[in-house]
């Protein structure tokens, strides 16, 4: 991880000199000299000299050989295994190991001691009258007499005063007396020596101090009956005799090296078996160790060196196995270090400090996770008391702080290479290092021992800034071309800019979040500002040299790539509103302005070559069932997309110049579209030449129009691809809207119009190939035998259309197929109108044409896949449909339709200009009789010369073919009366069924009797028979209502039904009906009322 240098630790410079010094660049001259490489910080070595290793090895062997106490559950029990581990950790040869082991075994044994701490007790007996006690403890070690039995419950009862009577007084220790309590706290420590752990036992007696008091005083403290019994008991014992509270007896061989437990106070009788508990701590330690290291060095220093040696071995072992050390010591190392710290009686604080010093030194020379340093830092901070350290230890701790800080800053300065993102855990490793440094600099110990240290964020910021500059120059050297030249220099500069952009992306996505979360440092902004200043001058110098003369295509391409890379770099920077000043790369596009014509020309040339190559290779075959255009259309779409992508990449900042560039792009694209149309048609002619199969030519024509349709869609997307809307907003301040319409939009509409014309021409050619066949089949319908049903007669036409339209639908895209259907539908209607007009008088032919029209409508609609209803139901279609409906009807049906129309006219007439008649009509279903009471007429026209009329009414049931046996009836004639009262009744014997048909009516013809000539027509009235009272059998018998009917005249311009009937010369019934109706119309025209009558 770090480079070891030859400088000694004693000559290491102070912290602020070790930290990276960086000069902020105020003036960036033309030639940026390479920065002098920062001298690496020499990490403290974790290696020891042979002499030091020998002393440590002796110390470690001595620790293992003189181990006492039961082992911890997680520790190694076998001494042989620990010795083997030490041999590996110190890399000692077997012969040397045996030799040193023999020497250590011959050394004098240490003085074994039990460090006993009496912490507290709880729940002891209250021996005083007050219910409390004044407890104290006597403790000592009884040597040479083992404690029989195993558990406390199985031991025999111990006599009172074991310590006082069996252990010499000079070996007996006593705690302080705690007055009046049942839960005393002592927290006193005693060192008890022993010789043989197997025959030594620890004894503790707890007593209640008894002082001589008067009976009066004791009675004053009496609180209960138990206190009274206590007074009587005290009266029987000797004055000043202490009361026994309980004892604890332990065999030393049952103790671990460290014990911390609550022990039950054992009684000597069964009187009070529950006497409370006592909290004791034990530690088996050494005094007067015979090793050279123990005699010459502090216990803390020896432990530090041993820890450092074993940690280095642990890290090395993991590296050899290609794994990362997680900070956990092996059971062998943990056992040895635990034994040594216990035997040397090191405090927890000194152990944590030794762990920090060892880990921090090894970390600077051997790689392992920096998170392993957090635990010792936390432990030191938790236990920190400056006064407990000697001056040498304070200096050593301060040096470790400054050394690790300097080393960490050197790693941060080179974080791009030390923590590469190609390694998955690099961000986590750097974050861990930063957190260790932050935690270390927040420590009270760091603040007291390193008061002159600069704030960590400032040091890290300076390290990052210097590291960024160093990284830039390293990359510049890496891209230095071997051959000098503008093209080579451009490639090198392009690679440098791309590396810078990639690094800034990494800073933005990964590193910036990390530094900001831990130290609130904006790495990305700092790196961007530094790098953009460094790169700006180099790019400006290069572009000035490159555009000083004519720009070659190769140089133009190189400059374009450099321009695109710089745009990407600038997009990463802050917005103008967020900047404090001007950036060096602001307006960098002006450096490339002379190269724009070269870029535009190359874009068009490359696109044109691609179009020509695509058409030349196109075989005019659809790409698939769903993709009906050919390969050249796909290539052209890709080509136009590339032009749009080039325009997006260019994204010229100056609005007016950007508008002119977009105009050029649109002009070139539209030109390419028209060139493509010419080339693809020529390609179709080339492939069709010499082909006898007309179907193949039709196939290629379908593909050509599909390609043009695809091109039209692509051209239509130009405003989106070239971002016209955003461009118009940018240039709104410098250009008028009219100018935009006259340039961009006019170019686009012109190109689309040209393409639409080409498509329509192609589709019209396809339609012409089908129109002749459609006309032939429609004309053939007329000549089919009368015995053939209309549905069968149209089968050839429908089969022809099914085959041809299915073929066209398969080979044309939907837009072109719809255009083809529109043309064919218009042509089909035209042919049908012509034939229907020619066959007006033939109902059979009209019925065939009607069925044909119905089936053609279904065919062209194609269940929603063809033309929509609004496109099918044109005015021509509706007129033709109405005409064929009439032409196909029989003469009697037409007569019925005539009377239906007259009934509608009667219902719509509200005025009585011609007069009116009043009748009553009813039907008796039981007799099948229609009864008509003609009551009167009124307001009749005076048709005679004397200013009056001689009216009478003729009653007929129409149509006559429905009531052939019923003769017309007439009323009496009234002389000179314009308001005659007829009051006559007529009965017609007629079934109900014909009366209920559409058009069935009672025709009331009012005539003026003329003695010498024909009777004149006063008017006609029509009563629908289906509305007659009683016809449906639901009306209740009763008074029949009167009906007043205004008189009407036939239509003066003639009725279309009558004209159609008139055309049927061979139909006598039709001719007779037309003759009668023409006669009535003629009569009506002679006596039409004048306006204002």
From TrEMBL:
Database matches in PROSITE patterns: C2 (PS50004), MHD1 (PS51258), MHD2 (PS51259)
Alphabetical list of SUPFAM superfamilies matching this protein: C2 domain (Calcium/lipid-binding domain, CaLB)
Cell compartments where the protein resides: Cytoplasm; Late endosome; Recycling endosome
Assigned keywords, A-Z: Cytoplasm, Endosome, Exocytosis
Stretches the record annotates as Disordered: 26-47, 1030-1055
Gene Ontology CC terms: exocytic vesicle; late endosome; recycling endosome
Domain MHD1, residue spans: 560-680
Main location: cytoplasm
Keyword Cytoplasm carried by entry: yes
Domain MHD2: 791-898
GO biological process: exocytosis
Keyword set includes Membrane: no
CDD domains: C2A_Munc13-like, C2B_Munc13-like
Cited Gene3D superfamilies: 1.10.357.50, C2 domain
Pfam families according to UniProt: C2 (PF00168), MUN (PF06292)
C2 domain sequence ranges: 93-241, 913-1038
Family named by the database record: Belongs to the unc-13 family.
Protein name: Unc-13-like protein D
């Amino acid at each position: 991880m770090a480079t070891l240098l030859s400088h000694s630790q004693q000559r290491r410079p102070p912290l602020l000199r070790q930290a990276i010094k960086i000069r902020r660049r105020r003036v960036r001259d033309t030639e940026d000299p390479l920065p002098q490489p920062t001298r690496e910080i020499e990490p403290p070595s974790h290696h020891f000299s042979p002499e030091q290793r020998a002393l440590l090895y002796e110390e470690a062997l001595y620790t293992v050989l003189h181990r006492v106490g039961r082992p911890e559950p997680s520790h190694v029990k076998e001494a042989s295994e620990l010795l083997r581990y030490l041999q590996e950790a110190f890399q000692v040869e077997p012969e040397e190991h045996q030799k040193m082991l023999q020497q250590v075994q011959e050394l004098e044994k240490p003085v074994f001691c039990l460090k006993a701490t009496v912490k507290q007790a709880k729940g002891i007996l209250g021996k005083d009258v007050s219910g409390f006690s004044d407890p104290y403890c006597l403790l000592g070690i009884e040597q040479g007499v083992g404690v029989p039995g195993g558990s406390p419950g199985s031991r025999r009862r111990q006599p009172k005063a074991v310590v006082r009577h069996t252990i010499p007084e000079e070996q007996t220790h006593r705690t302080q007396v705690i007055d009046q309590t049942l839960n005393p706290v002592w927290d006193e420590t005693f060192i008890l020596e022993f010789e043989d752990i197997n025959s030594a036992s620890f004894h503790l007696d707890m007593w209640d101090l008894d002082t001589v008091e008067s009976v009066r005083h004791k009675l004053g403290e009496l609180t209960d009956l138990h206190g009274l019994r206590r007074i009587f008991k005290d009266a029987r014992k000797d004055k000043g005799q202490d009361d026994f509270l309980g004892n604890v007896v332990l065999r030393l061989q049952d103790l671990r090296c460290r014990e911390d437990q609550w022990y039950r106070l054992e009684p000597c009788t069964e009187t009070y078996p529950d006497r409370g508990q006592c909290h004791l701590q034990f530690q088996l330690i050494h005094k007067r160790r015979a090793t050279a290291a123990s005699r010459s060095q502090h216990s803390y220093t020896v432990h530090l060196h041993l820890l450092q040696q074993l940690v280095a071995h642990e890290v090395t072992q993991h590296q050899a196995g290609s794994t990362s050390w997680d900070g956990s010591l092996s059971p062998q190392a943990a056992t040895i270090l635990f034994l040594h710290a216990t035997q040397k009686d090191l405090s927890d604080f000194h152990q944590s400090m030794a762990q920090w010093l060892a880990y921090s030194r090894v970390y600077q020379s051997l790689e392992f996770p920096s998170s392993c340093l957090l635990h010792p830092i936390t432990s030191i901070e938790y236990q920190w008391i400056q006064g407990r350290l000697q001056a040498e230890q304070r200096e050593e701790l301060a040096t470790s702080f400054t050394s690790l800080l300097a080393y960490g800053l050197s790693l941060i300065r080179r974080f791009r290479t030390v923590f590469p993102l190609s390694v998955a855990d690099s961000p986590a490793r750097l974050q861990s290092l930063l957190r260790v440094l932050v935690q270390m600099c927040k420590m009270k110990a760091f603040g007291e021992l390193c008061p002159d240290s600069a704030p960590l964020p400032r040091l890290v910021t300076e390290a990052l800034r210097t590291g960024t500059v160093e990284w830039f120059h390293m990359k510049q050297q890496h891209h230095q071309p071997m051959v000098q030249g503008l093209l080579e220099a451009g490639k090198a500069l392009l690679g440098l800019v791309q590396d810078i952009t990639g690094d800034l992306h990494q800073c933005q996505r990964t590193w910036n979040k990390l530094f900001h979360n831990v130290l609130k440092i904006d790495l990305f902004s700092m790196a961007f500002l530094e790098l953009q200043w460094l790169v700006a001058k180099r790019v400006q110098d290069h572009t000035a040299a490159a555009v000083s003369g004519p720009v070659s295509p190769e140089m133009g391409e190189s400059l374009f790539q450099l321009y695109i890379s710089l745009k990407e770099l600038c997009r990463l920077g802050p917005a103008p509103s967020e900047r404090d000043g001007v950036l060096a790369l602001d307006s960098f596009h002006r450096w490339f302005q002379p190269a724009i014509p070269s870029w535009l020309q190359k874009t068009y040339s490359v696109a044109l070559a691609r179009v020509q190559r695509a058409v030349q290779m196109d075989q005019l075959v659809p790409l698939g069932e769903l993709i009906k255009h050919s390969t050249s259309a796909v290539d052209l779409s890709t080509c136009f997309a590339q032009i749009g992508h080039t325009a997006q990449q260019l994204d010229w900042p100056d609005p007016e110049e950007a508008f002119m560039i977009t105009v050029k792009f649109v002009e070139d694209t539209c030109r390419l579209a028209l060139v493509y149309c010419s080339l693809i048609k020529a390609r179709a002619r080339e492939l069709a030449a010499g082909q006898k199969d007309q179907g193949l030519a039709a196939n290629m024509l379908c593909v050509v129009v599909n390609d043009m349709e695809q091109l039209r869609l692509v051209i239509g997307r130009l405003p989106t691809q070239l971002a016209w809307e955003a461009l118009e907003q940018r240039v709104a301040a410098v250009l008028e809207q009219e100018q935009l319409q006259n340039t961009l939009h006019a170019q686009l509409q012109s190109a689309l119009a040209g393409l639409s014309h080409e498509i329509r021409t192609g589709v019209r050619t396809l339609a012409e190939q089908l129109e002749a066949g459609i006309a032939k089949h429609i004309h053939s319908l007329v000549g089919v035998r009368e015995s053939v049903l209309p549905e069968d007669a149209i089968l050839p036409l429908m089969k022809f259309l099914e085959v041809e339209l299915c073929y066209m639908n398969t080979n044309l895209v939907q837009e072109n197929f719809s255009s083809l259907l529109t043309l064919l539908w218009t042509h089909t209607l035209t042919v049908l109108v012509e034939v229907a007009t020619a066959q007006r008088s033939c109902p059979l032919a009209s019925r065939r044409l009607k069925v044909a029209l119905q089936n053609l409508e279904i065919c062209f609609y194609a269940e929603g896949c063809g033309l929509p209803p609004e496109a099918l139901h044109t005015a021509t279609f509706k007129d033709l449909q109405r005409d064929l409906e009439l032409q196909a009807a029989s003469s009697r049906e037409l007569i019925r339709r005539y009377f239906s129309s007259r009934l509608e006219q009667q219902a719509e007439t509200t005025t009585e200009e011609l007069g009116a008649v009043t009748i009553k009509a009813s039907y008796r279903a039981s007799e099948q009789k229609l009864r008509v009471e003609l009551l009167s007429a009124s307001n009749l026209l005076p048709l005679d010369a004397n200013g009056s009329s001689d009216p009478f009414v003729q009653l007929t049931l129409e149509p006559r073919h429905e009531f052939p046996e019923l003769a017309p009836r007439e009323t009496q004639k009234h002389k000179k009366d314009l308001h005659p009262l007829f009051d006559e009744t007529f009965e017609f014997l007629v079934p109900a069924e014909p009366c209920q048909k559409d058009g069935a009516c009672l025709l009331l013809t009012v005539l003026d009797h003329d003695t010498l000539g024909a009777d004149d027509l006063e008017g006609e009235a029509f009563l629908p028979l289906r509305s007659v009272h009683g016809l449906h059998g639901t009306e209740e018998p009763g008074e029949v209502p009167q009906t007043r009917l205004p008189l009407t005249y036939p239509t003066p311009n003639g009725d279309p039904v009558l004209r159609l009937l008139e055309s049927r010369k061979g139909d006598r019934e039709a001719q007779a009906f037309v003759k009668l109706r023409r006669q009535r119309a003629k009569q009506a025209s002679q006596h039409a009322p004048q306006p204002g009558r």
